């Protein structure tokens, strides 16, 4: 006869397993497991097998284990997990890419009926069309103010009707009608609530950021730092080039307005005294552009003109019969 393990033995085994996972993994997805059945959870475990482990348990037990393990190891980063263990949640320990694991978890959703008292996660709209129900079932539609008509001995819904709004509780009439129509409006699965990575905790939306998003936000941050540094005249690595340029402009303006000069200002003063030098400097560039344009046009004409075939090449002369 096989002796069943006691509750104390199960707690010890669970505590050991959780501590082992905390030591082996540095990445954890905290997921909500509301309305997720055991078979569905088993499929998720099977799909993540290899580089990820799903661990469920009571929040009080998980918090206690995390706290004691943090004290034993001296790693206070584990304590960041404790505030996340609220509600019906579980932990997915992984060594894989967090975004890929999160996407894999999202695949395992199962359709579910609208049960009485359940809070609707989405809006439920009943589409128009033939319901296949006999006229004796019209009372359901009348209670819910759904316009119908009798068509060929069956009830037909005339217009689409928003039956349940997101956040509302499902009533008995709505649940009965959806059941009769065979509509399973909701789908449930593990939902990632938070991400733990080497002691840092962040929102799962961060996983959807691309490199372009990161570069854009970094550039916006550098721009703000530069603007602030320039406004308060505080030198930073980002603002330094602009400060040097602005300083050069100021010194150049003083040199142009006075007799003071320096090598770089001499060239500017020379051009200001004789503006025709600007035209002389620009002329070679314009000339080069204008000379290259006709040459390119002629070359193009040569390519486009087909070679004319002579009469001799065709095998007869001008006066041949």
UniProtKB/TrEMBL annotation:
Biased composition (Acidic residues): 306-321
Region of interest called Disordered, as start-end residue ranges on this chain: 289-321
Any one of the GO BP annotations: ribosomal large subunit assembly
Recorded superkingdom: Eukaryota
Stored InterPro entries: Ribosomal_protein_uL10 (IPR050323), Ribosomal_uL10 (IPR001790), Ribosomal_uL10-like_insert (IPR040637), Ribosomal_uL10-like_insert_sf (IPR043164), Ribosomal_uL10-like_sf (IPR043141), uL10_eukaryotes (IPR030670)
Keywords for this protein: Ribonucleoprotein, Ribosomal protein
Domain Large ribosomal subunit protein uL10-like insertion, first and last residues per copy: 114-183
Gene Ontology terms for molecular function: large ribosomal subunit rRNA binding; structural constituent of ribosome
One GO CC term, this protein: cytosolic large ribosomal subunit
Its biological purpose: Ribosomal protein P0 is the functional equivalent of E.coli protein L10.
Family designation: Belongs to the universal ribosomal protein uL10 family.
The protein's name in its UniProt record: 60S acidic ribosomal protein P0
Organism, as annotated: Aquilegia coerulea
